[in-house]
Amino acid sequence: MHRFLPEKLKEKLPSGWNDTMFWTAALSGGKKIYFDYCCEFKTPKSYQPKVKVAPEFQLSPENIKFFYENGYLGPFKLMSEDEAENLREYLLNSVVNTVPPQVDRSSYKFEETGNIAEDLLPESNLLTEEYKEYFSERFKTLNRHLDNSTLLALFKRPEIVERCAQLLGPNLLLWRSRFFEIYPHSSGTQWHQNSNWLYENMRDSVVNPSDSSELFQLTCWIALTDANKEKGSMMVIPGTHQTIYPIQRGSTLTDDNNLHLHSFGYGDIDYPIDNTEKKLIEMKAGEFFLFTERVIHGSCENTTDSSRWAVNFRLVKTDTRIYTEEMLEKGHKDTYHNVKNLCLDYWKAVLVRGEDHFGYNRLLK
């Protein structure tokens, strides 16, 4: 359909949508839309690990079956609580509170009006000065492994990578990382799920695997402080990764669904969250767990007097293309955040295991 339309109209249409996404929007009168690429999740023919690893990192077929049925695995121990606290202090003082070298506020512009987010998500972020400052500060917590060797070494730890390889395969790329703080006495993270990060651009997916229905990406979430029911524990709704759900456009967030100070602000996932059992992933500082972003997940509020800190990072198979050529050449249009011309010259993927036989992504040397 797109090829028959004028260029100006094509620029406003979500070219990354499939038929299910278009029909859902059309038949609901625009009340339901997909926030990310819609596809079903394939179950593998075998639950055997994809690679052989050292015994201390070995996953059993039962572990892998559990992951495919529930969408997560763990937690596992990575380091002692004292080591986690020392790492948190270092990262907070030497990384999170510093401006990364890749950030240049002149390298992106805020888009005041006329983007697809206004049509699809009119409740999305308003361009207040406070919001602009929040977005700029966000860079301090994003992809800092590209300029900090301590953080990169953390993400290469075999306790993590060798377990991920048994689920994804031998060749792995790190493509994004981020710090997360939940302040004392503040709400948690809103329920959400991702597949191909279509929501960022709202036209084309950021993450482009060879098959979106297969497991192609894992997120590793590392607790730098204790994370429990009282202090911002992660939560998942097991089994919801089997499909991607649309959102109720313009709906009022329920108390149970409105979980985060910096919430996504787009409405409720079209899923009976209030009537569904949630799984708390309570963790000690120094532990981590793995999950697919497809599973509906969020976090509890923090009712304590201290911040909950965590860092996560995302691994993909090497046959996955991150960002389109247009995004890399002309700059990323992060429509959901009302930003355009976001320069990606500094961005690179990192080969953390195996070999890259595809060459789809720029690699950190």
From TrEMBL:
Pfam families per record: PhyH (PF05721)
GO molecular function, one term: iron ion binding
InterPro entries in alphabetical order: Phytyl_CoA_dOase-like (IPR008775)
Protein name: Phytanoyl-CoA dioxygenase family protein
Taxonomic path: Bacteria, Bacillati, Cyanobacteriota, Cyanophyceae, Oscillatoriophycideae
